[in-house]
Amino acid sequence: MNIAVIGGGVIGMSCALHLARAGLKVRLFTEKKLASGASGRSLSWLNASGPWPDEYYKLRMAGIDRYRTLYRNNPGVDWLKFDGGIFWSDQDEVLELNAIEQRRGYDSVLFQAAGVNQIDANIDPAAVNAYGIYNAGEGWVSLPDVIAHMAAEFIQLDGVVIEDAGNTMPLTDAQGVVQGVSSAQKGEYPCDKVLLACGPATARVLAGMGIDLPDGSVLSMLAITQPSDHRPTVVLNTPRVAMRPNPGNTLAVDHSWYTDDIEQDENGNCTVPDSIITQLLSEADHLLKTGAPLALAGYKAGWKPVPADGFPVLGELEQAPGCYVAFTHSGATLALIIGELLSWEITTGKPHPMLAPFRPGRFKHQ
Q1: By its UniProt entry, which InterPro entries does this protein fall under (predicted)?
Q2: In what order do the strands lie in the sheet with 80-81?
Q3: Three-class DSSP category at 121
Q4: Mind listing the domains of the chain with CATH numbers?
Q5: Which terminus of the chain, N or C, has fewer Cβ atoms within 10 Å?
Q6: What SS3 string covers 327-363?
Q7: Do the beta carbons of residue 5 and residue 335 sit within 8 Å?
Q8: Per-residue CA distances from 159 to 5, 13, 151, 178 (Å)
Q9: Which helix (H) or strand (E) is 93 found in, with range?
Q10: Which residues of 170-205 are buried (b: 16+ CB within 10 A; e: fewer)?
């Protein structure tokens, strides 16, 4: 069986690798370079925190489990760590979230501001609200690095990566059945199945096939700092800044309060005013004990993939047999498990029960 995967982010690469492991002939098409889209600007906090429905919580926990397996098989890498996460907000929100997490059995410990340095010595207790939550089982991953890691194995398995393919679309016959793909720069490729994992472009690609998928994608930005000797080891999620460690002794920093200030030109290129970057790094400085201000190494801005109802869209399209879709905002946490389960569906022809709540067809009933 020949498969074409459209999308060079972490979900596309995970799907391609799992399909190649199953012995299929796989070509991955990406518009530009691997990790050049949303995966290259993701905070990539590995977690199942939040008041999620049970089926989504279980999928996220399975996603974390697969990263733990990856970490076990690659000890000592600097692009995947499980050093925990800290969250704080107003007191009522913190207490409510802690209660939800504890009822679910999620590792969630309430702490007072004065005790934060028992968790991480580089956080300033004065910056913490009255209470915070420590989730010791959480982690982070650098998606460009894990994509490169998976791509190396994919190529060893005779998978083919086609970069700079330009806009790539599925080809269908008169009945809507998938016949292959057509890329703007690399031409047509006949195949048996197609898997779309093209992030925020998913709705646009499907619209070109006459299929409507409600899209809630938003603009976002991720800043990377210069190396810092006093960076925290935990992921931090706070009212004004979120940050995590990053390879090279740097920090990845983002939040959502400035999204309306992200500017996009007619070619789709996104920029952020210098004043926003300055303020975001100042907010990050406020959390840390070190007196040396963080310095910017660079940033990336663009669209973050978000389905309209906030939950993953996974599985075969009823309107285009043989065409599968993987569209979600939680790509970092879910990438490995999505690749595994969608590969299983494609190779066996059977629906996996864990993906049942996330089928594309659910939007027809809303």
Answers
A1: FAD-dep_OxRdtase, FAD/NAD-bd_sf
A2: 45-46, 139-141, 80-81
A3: coil
A4: 2-41+143-216+308-365 (3.50.50.60), 81-138+218-303 (3.30.9.10)
A5: C
A6: ECCCHHHHHHHHHHHHHHHHHHCCCCHHHHHHCHHHH
A7: no
A8: 11, 10, 9, 20
A9: helix 91-104
A10: bbbeeebebebbbbeebeebebebbbbbbbbbbbeb
Tokens coding 221: 């930005």
Q: Residue 279, Cα to own-chain centre: how many angstroms?
A: 25
| CA dihedral sign, ordered 110, 112, 113, 114 | negative
Find out whether 166 and 31 touch, Cβ atoms under 8 Å.
Answer: yes
| Token pair belonging to 122 | 């580089």
pTM (2 d.p.): 0.96
Picking from 61, 124, 29, 127, the residue whose alpha carbon sits closest to that of residue 333 is 61
Residues in the chain: 366
